[in-house]
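#data-curation
PF: Archiving a pair of folding outputs for the training set. Convention for this channel: one message per protein, sequence first, structure tokens after, nothing in between. First:
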Amino acid sequence: MLDFVALLPVMGIFAGIYLPEATIVAFLISIVTLIPVIGFSSRIFSNQGYVSYVSESLGKYMGRISGIIYISYSFLVLPNIIMFLASFLFFFFSLSMSYRILFDTLFAALYMTFIFIPLSKGLSMTIKPIMVLGALEIGTIAVSCIIMFLNPGPSFPAVHQSFSIYGSSFWEAVMLGILMFSGGGSGIFLSGELRKENTSTPRALIYAYLVSGLALIIASFSILIFTGNLLPTYFNDPAILFTRLGNISGNVLLIAIIVLLIASGYNLTLSYGNALLQMLTAFIPGETGMNPGRGILAASLIFFAIPILVVSRIFFSFLYSFLFIAELVSMLYGLNHILVGISSARNGGKMLFRISGIVSSCLLATAIGISVYTSDLSEAYLVAIFLFLAIGSIIMSTNMAQEKIIKYYEKFSQIRKN
């Protein structure tokens, strides 16, 4: 639902009437990218996910780089989700702009508190709500798509209008689309908990990608049909889609979409947060063997998420901040999967996984390169931060840096114990 409400219209800013095509291309790239992950998950059973995959083929150093890249973009995903939800509620209730920062801060604090409780308790507290909410989201999107297909907009198709407010960039839309399908990979961080290790994770990945892909591709076509020549207005103000849905179907569906939008953000935050904690509990202590505890790690999410959100909202507009972080996360996600693809090409087992690793890495590198080259959204800043985080991951993964991290972590653990 968060993709349906937030990312599809943002993709449309760049892709225009080619929104369905951008969604399909992003999905196909994501499927190719998924194949090496499926290969690894069928024979490596670890809660460290990408770290364990890359480490097996390229060594512990490259595995640590993959882990730090994942940590970087996971810590960026969480404030971006909160930023969108806070802004959506802020404008939905038509609050005064003078209360914007206060509202965002209070909402973030309250939201992260409700996230902290299940994350600190363990897997059983997170998986059940994820399953229930996910099923409700898919069902509501399906109902919305049926209504949109049955109620085409005026003068469809509107092929001669200009849709982009930043300058058309199909590949930027594709990169955002790749981000849209990235959440399904959270399941690889549960491999160590499963009874049927060699089949459960690959099957879950396939189901997650196929269901989400089918739902969002159909949704992109239905939006095009439903809005007709109002499509440019929809990209600038996505609320018109839901207002019109409410006028046609009554307020029940509109309320369900709004409630499930909040639930979807909560669901996605739980998924990312749980995956991050699963990986961090094994990744951070290094050779010390000490587990920092889910409670401490969950609290650190709050420590990082709220300042990022507040700083973004003080100095930049919502749309600028949301797009900037989303594109940065998408590029870092792609970089991580390039490492996984190279790992699969080198040591992926079956020929299918080796070939898919090469193809996946080439497709992602091409998509990132074209996206950066054609970017109209503060390209220099985006590239600079991307390179800073990528190079920082390389430096932080060296043995010298790891020794210092472990040393400081041991001091922190001793202080906390005392």
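PF: Second:
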Amino acid sequence: MWLVPRDTHGLSARREIPPSVQDALVRWYTGKGSDADHRASVTLVTIARENEQWIACGCLGETCPPPLTSPAYLSEAETYYLRRLTSRPLHQRRCPFYLPQAPDRIRERPGDSLFEIEFPKGLFNAHKKAPEKLAQQPDDEELDDRSRGVSIPRLGRLLWMLLEASHANVLPALPAQGRPEHGLRDEFARIREAASRFLIAPRINLQDHLYFNVKDWEARRVHARLREAEKLWPGDFAPQAFLLLEAHGISGTTIHTGLGDLKVRNRVQHTGIIRAKVEPPFIVLAVVGEHSPREGYLPLRAYAQPVFKGNRFIPVDREEDRTFLEQLVSFQYRMRRKNVQVAIKRPLFDIVTQAGKVRPDAIVAFLDLRTGLEADFAVQLLRERTPQYLEMKADERQRFEEFHRTLSVQVHQLGDADFLDRLEAMLDQA
């Protein structure tokens, strides 16, 4: 076995791994190793990762292009693991690192179930100290159909929690005349204020390590403040900071903003529920931390969330959600002409009721200045017409109606002239 530079075929510039370390890695990976084997394996993997190297296996001989393995870190499980590079040669069947190719990934459709979205637990942090732990060989009996359950990365949940706390997911009632004077600076100011209510670690306030401009990273202000904060950072917690950026594009590991690009160590994540392409703008939350002293502080991971507008950070999952919100804004103006104030909220997390958890697409609250009547109702978007989906959404609506009168609307009806009439009718029924 050899250590070879990344992004090569593995035949040149390689350095042999000592036989004793190779044997320790095989024993640990196959579940037969001791604690000493584990420590030696972790040391090998961390050295390879820090030096941007891959591990080349010699099971095919010294002259053939070797099977290559990338030392990787899985943040959710807090462990290192050996990630096989499937575009490279396969290990021989008798090799302890051989695994059959996984079947094609089964994509789970958003209409298959009701997805629960709960608040993230614990402090506002997304990076932990890298543990000295290496995953072993997968169980042969485990079914690997590459199906991917719907999950939202912790960074995404933290971002939504911050937006919820700052009421960025609310369209407030319109002023008495004209349009709201609300810009990007106002959105960031609200989020900065909300950040004062969260802790990254005990006694470490999020507001002190939250940045809204890529220039703060380029000027190394983020690094400097973290280095200074290390002296007081609780020992059990990894020092970290966050960049919250309005972006006009995402490509692989790069976030494109109006003031420059930010390169992230890992591929920028998108929503785990909807895989449909959504156009910018995005709001992106990136965590800055340190995996190794050699590399120092880096933007490690990022989550990109499409939003309604560049100055309205209301999360959307599909382009039709923007159409939906535009219609609700039109409804605000229509009702203002009739002396009725309307505010709209897009819930980001589940609302717990006796009937179960619910999350309508919008809650519309209104105050009729003519009569003093104040009430609200929910709006449910129906994105499919299949019997299974409609049955599921009917159950969802039944839960809504324990607390909110509910209007259900098909996506294709959003552009119909009578949609605003149906919204207004909900006010008349209050």
